[in-house]
Specification:
Blueprint: H1 2-43, H2 48-53, H3 63-72, H4 75-89, H5 92-97, H6 100-104, H7 110-139, H8 151-159, H9 162-178, H10 182-203, H11 217-221, H12 233-256, H13 268-271
Helix pairs in contact: 1-3, 1-4, 1-7, 4-9, 4-10, 7-8, 7-9, 7-12, 9-10, 9-12
Length: 289
């Protein structure tokens, strides 16, 4: 199992590097530019609806609110791009390249293979978070943030975005286990990510649809207010619980998946471990003499 995890992490290494460095550099840049914007923001009077769209409340000139809007309101959305491609690629991508059959031919069960891939994706997300945290570590101590935000505050907030990422990773694995191919799974998950973000944002400013925010994972993540009001721990636990459920369903579906079938496989959830191997290729029709 360890070898499979290392192999998958090796495949993901450049994604981890570029997402980590990119988001970390942006986090540091936002911290460094804050002093130049703080006086302007003190005099600015932004509409409440503008702040509510980004999930923030209060004075945008304060460091916590500024970082909440400029980084934590939308940077997790970029992180979720990794979740979409990594979660749908580690198994469905192998199937599309024709290498999954080779892995399954080895003395390893489907369950063990799935758990190895899922663990690698989670560790990759953790590694990205750690790299981004370096951006906070090298910038926050050098800038006057009025004593509101320290390095530990920023790093803690960064790690508290992980439940949201793991939620979408788990359900990405599930979609990849039932979709015809990786492309369909990634496209559907991408739509869910964007729609969930828009629903959460618009529900904060449009009263008739305010109830819809409870349908969005972003509401429970509360990333924009992690530096101001802090996390709602039962919301974080709910996301992690939903991730466990999604991962369990993904495992069940993968164990029942017919490799190479090229169709939606909802019945894989029922079949569970009853289906093995790959789809049987059709024999060419015999020409009639």
């Amino acid at each position: 199992m360890g070898a499979l995890i290392r192999h998958t992490l090796l495949d993901l290494r450049w994604q981890v590097f570029w997402y980590g460095v990119g988001l970390g550099a942006y986090a540091a840049a936002i911290v460094f530019v804050y002093p130049q914007f703080s006086e302007t923001l003190d005099a600015a009077n932004y509409p409440d609806e503008f702040l509510q769209f980004f999930g923030s409340e209060g004075d945008l000139s304060t460091p916590a609110n500024f970082l909440g809007v400029e980084y934590f309101s939308w940077a997790p959305l970029v992180f979720l791009v990794f979740a979409v491609f990594a979660s749908t690629g580690v198994l469905a991508g192998e199937e599309g390249r024709g290498t999954l059959e080779t892995l399954l031919a080895q003395p390893v069960s489907r369950g063990r293979l799935f758990l190895s891939k899922a663990t690698a994706v989670a560790l990759a997300a953790l590694a990205i978070t750690a790299i981004v945290s370096l951006g906070w570590a090298v910038s926050v101590p050098l800038v006057d943030l009025r004593g509101e935000v320290g390095v530990l505050d920023a790093v803690r907030a960064q790690f508290l975005t992980l439940p949201l990422v793991l939620f979408f990773c788990a359900w990405g694995l599930f979609l990849a286990a039932i979709a015809p191919a990786r492309g369909q799974a990634a496209a559907l998950l991408g739509v869910v990510v964007i729609v969930s973000y828009l629903v959460s944002s618009l529900a904060g400013v449009i009263e008739p649809i305010e109830w819809m925010k409870y349908l969005s994972p972003y509401y429970y993540a509360g990333t924009s207010t992690l530096l101001t009001t802090g996390p709602v721990w039962w919301h974080q636990a709910l996301l992690l619980g939903a991730a466990v459920i999604g991962g369990g369903l993904a495992l069940r579906a993968f164990q029942g998946r017919e490799i190479g079938a090229g169709r939606w496989q909802f019945r894989a959830l029922i079949a569970g471990g009853g289906v093995r191997g790959t789809a049987t290729p059709r024999r060419p029709a015999r020409a009639e003499g």
